[in-house]
Specification:
Number of domains of chain B: 1
Strand content of chain C: 5-15%
CATH superfamily of chain B: Immunoglobulins
Order of helices and strands of chain C: HHHHHHHHEEHHHHEEEEHHE
Number of domains of chain C: 1
CATH architecture of chain B: Sandwich
Strand order of the largest sheet of chain B: 2-8-7-4-5
Largest sheet of chain C: 3 strands, mixed
Shape of chain C: globular
CATH class of chain C: Mainly Alpha
Shape of chain B: elongated
Number of helices of chain B: 0
Largest interface: A-C, 26 and 39 residues
Radius of gyration of chain C: 19 Å
CATH topology of chain B: Immunoglobulin-like
Order of helices and strands of chain B: EEEEEEEE
Distance between the termini of chain B: 39 Å
Helix content of chain B: under 10%
Radius of gyration of chain B: 16 Å
Number of strands of chain C: 7
Strand content of chain B: over 45%
CATH topology of chain C: Cytochrome Bc1 Complex, Chain D, domain 2
Strand order of the largest sheet of chain C: 6-5-7
Number of helices of chain C: 14
Chains: A mainly beta (151), B mainly beta (108), C mainly alpha (276)
Oligomer: heterotrimer
């Protein structure tokens, strides 16, 4: 677990709650390479395109044990054009996998939400596998509150 | 909780072609396999590893879960309903147990 | 450079609470709903812990399906109707429909017990019913069963203003609870009041301090990933200030619970709430 730095603490005290909605590059985390590997395993080596996928989650999680996460993929969800599955990764967890969601045209819409555990502030990555074999992805940074009141 | 208990929430009635929202939750510790007990021994992993939602036997939504899903796994998702039918929700435990729940929907 | 938990809390404990006063919390201050305290109450305004939580955490409580604590409420409902013990009675054998009979009970504990000549809290009352009337074994504190039943019973009183008795026979216990509340303990030499009276709305490290009310307990804490009791929370607070906690179900904690319930007098019962 990361510790809160003094600068951080002072920054917070000064009301500077600008806590990163800025995205942090992949390489900023030790485990990010594992996440990249997982993406490649999911896509069969293809680099996903940006777009179509949006991630819905808080910028700041009050506790890393239960963090709401949702996503939606822009797709007509017809027999010929739908989202097959969506891989969700957390690149700063000991193991980046969170879940793989499976859809069908009868899903109505390619969206879902759940709750996940995050060990620290990190990036959430969602990769969608479309029925035509293409892949799209999005990424979002969530700041995880650590070092509050235990109990 | 000792025995996993599911809850599901979806409308009892819908119009033909409607996209409905379904919410599910099940009591489960989702023991990650990362934690240690008081003596320092690793607590073995035990999670719900798979969730499936079927409508009249056909899978419409599913999820493969990793230990990073929080305790008491919760899902919200959609389904497009064309006719009156029965939903079945199935949760699969690492230990081989299966928990399921069924609910009908009337479509007019 | 990093500041460790101990140091940070110690700094705060030593009165260096420059943090929250510098404006971090102020944005949300005006938006917090509060109620007016009774005469002679130590707080200027009484604010539920709900108001101090993030919109995401509040959303989990706002919907009875999203709120994971309802898994426990449902379990409690089942147990309510399950006969147990030598008397082969269930809760409903005597108390029938909880929605009617437990409508205010969740707002009134801890309550004076004539036989024991001291106040008992909800968990203790439930266990007394079990041992005396059902002739069943008492449930262990923090067991799933006791949590489920406490959550279920208090949930019947949801929305009812907290209404504990503090005078008459309750007075000496109330006074003891009050004394505990203001007594500094532990290596960090802090009292409940240092956080929950002097500094609510301020941050302690990265956590926003509430007034420490009990109207949402048993509560689902994100941190616990499950429902927990008021006394479990008390223990946690005491550990945080490096004090040796009292035991769950101890007279000390019941007295403290009584006093803290009074600090939240008038707040609607929210049990089971969701907190961080």
């Amino acid at each position: 677990m990361t510790e809160l730095t003094r600068r951080h603490l002072l920054g917070m005290g000064a009301g500077a709650l600008v806590v990163s909605s800025i995205s942090i590059p992949f390489s900023a985390f030790a485990d990010a390479s594992k996440a990249k590997e997982a993406v490649m395993a999911f896509t069969g080596g293809k680099t996903p395109k940006e777009g179509k996928v949006s991630i819905d989650m808080p910028e700041i999680a009050e506790n890393g044990n239960t963090v709401p996460v949702g996503f939606s993929v822009d797709s007509p969800m017809t027999k010929d054009n739908y989202v097959k599955s969506v891989l969700v990764l957390a690149d700063g967890n000991p193991s980046p996998g969170v879940a793989t969601f499976h859809f069908s045209p009868a899903s109505g819409g390619a969206e879902a939400s759940s709750r996940m555990r995050l060990a620290k502030t990190q990036n959430i990555i969602a990769v969608a596998a479309m029925s035509d074999g293409s892949f799209y992805s999005a990424q979002s940074t969530v700041k995880v509150t650590i070092g509050g009141c235990g109990g | 909780m000792a025995k996993s208990k599911p809850r599901v929430k979806l409308p009892k009635k819908a119009g033909k072609g409607d996209v409905i929202t379904i919410k599910t939750i099940i009591s489960h510790k989702m023991e990650s396999g990362q934690r240690k007990d008081k003596k320092g021994n690793k607590i073995p992993r035990r999670i719900i590893n798979k969730f499936t939602c079927k409508l009249d036997g056909e899978q419409i939504f599913g999820c493969d879960l990793e230990p990073a899903i929080s305790a008491n796994p919760y899902f919200q998702f959609n389904a497009k309903v064309e006719k009156t039918g029965e939903f079945e929700f199935i949760w699969e435990d690492d230990n081989g147990d299966k928990y399921s729940k069924k609910q009908k929907i009337k479509v007019s | 450079m990093t500041i460790k938990a101990k140091t940070a809390i110690a700094l705060i404990g030593a009165g260096m609470l420059a943090l929250g006063t510098m404006g971090l919390a102020s944005a949300a201050d005006e938006e917090r709903k509060s109620i007016a305290p009774p005469d002679g109450h130590p707080l200027d305004e009484i604010i539920s812990g709900y108001e101090f939580r993030s919109p995401e955490t509040q959303a989990l409580q706002d919907d009875d399906f999203e709120n994971p604590a309802y898994l426990w409420v449902e379990k409690g409902q089942e147990l309510w109707d399950t006969p147990e013990g030598k008397a082969n009675k269930s809760c409903s054998s005597c108390h029938e429909d909880a929605a009617e009979t437990m409508k205010t009970a969740g707002a009134e504990f801890p309550k004076y017990n004539e036989k024991l000549k001291k106040p008992v809290n909800m968990e203790q009352q439930i266990n007394m019913c079990r041992t005396e009337h059902m002739e069943a074994k008492a449930w262990k504190w923090e067991s799933e069963e006791l949590l489920a039943m406490t959550a279920f019973v208090r949930n019947q009183s949801r929305g009812v203003p907290m209404n504990v008795k503090t005078d008459g026979l309750m007075k000496p216990f109330f006074d003891k609870g009050k004394e505990l509340y203001y007594t500094r303990v532990g290596q960090l030499d802090m009292a409940c009041s240092n956080c929950h009276e002097d500094n609510y709305g301020n941050h302690i490290r990265s956590d926003m301090l509430s007034q420490g009310h009990t109207n949402g307990f048993p509560t689902f804490r994100l941190k616990w990933q499950k429902v927990g009791s008021t006394h479990r929370r008390f223990k946690g607070c005491m550990k945080n200030i490096r004090a040796t906690p009292y035991k769950v179900g101890s007279d000390e904690f019941v007295n403290l619970e009584l006093y803290i319930a009074y600090r939240g007098q008038g707040l609607p019962v929210e049990a089971p709430a969701v907190r961080n």
